[in-house]
Amino acid sequence: MHAHVRAVEAALPGMLPLPGEGSLAGNLRAWLDRALALHAAILPALAGLTTQPKLLARLAESPALPGGDPGVRAEFADYLRAEQRLGRVAPTADPRAAATLLVGVCHDLVLGRLLDPAGAPPRTDPELVDALVDTLLRGVAAAGSG
Q1: CA 37 to CA 102: how far, in whole Å?
Q2: How far apart are CA 27 and CA 58, in angstroms?
Q3: What is the DSSP string of the chain?
Q4: What Rg value do the Cα atoms of the chain yield, rounded?
Q5: pLDDT 10s digits, 87-135
Q6: Rounded CA gap, 102 and 76, in Å?
Q7: Which tens digits make up the pLDDT trace of 37-68?
Q8: pTM assigned to the model
């Protein structure tokens, strides 16, 4: 499983943006696009393990999969903390919560399609990705509704 994840990561195009480079919206989109591609490639293999509880237990005891959920979550949270230090992310934003939302979106979009045998293969809907990035940037509360 570790070798599979490393191979998938190596095959993903492009590099993740560095803090302070480009626009924050563009960077969030790049993170989400990459996380979705990674999950679409590795979750089918992990889903096959659900019928093997001993193997799942062994996998749970091993270090986080490189680039897997804990890796993506931690890396994205670190990226957001760096953007906070640069003043591009609000000091009140919680990078861990935002990173968990990013991974949750990946699980929802990828697993939803994997669990539907008649459904189309997982793919990224560019309009939904744009809406997710916009929601992450702006939040959901109306002004003054706190």
Answers
A1: 13
A2: 35
A3: -HHHHHHHHHHS-S-PPPTTSS-HHHHHHHHHHHHHHHHHHHHHHHHGGGG-HHHHHHHHHSPPPTTSHHHHHHHHHHHHHHHHHTTSS-TT--HHHHHHHHHHHHHHHHHHHHT-TTSPPP---HHHHHHHHHHHHH-SPPTT--
A4: 16
A5: 999 999 999 999 999 988 888 888 777 777 676 665 677 898 889 999 9
A6: 8
A7: 888 888 777 777 777 778 777 766 666 554 44
A8: 0.80
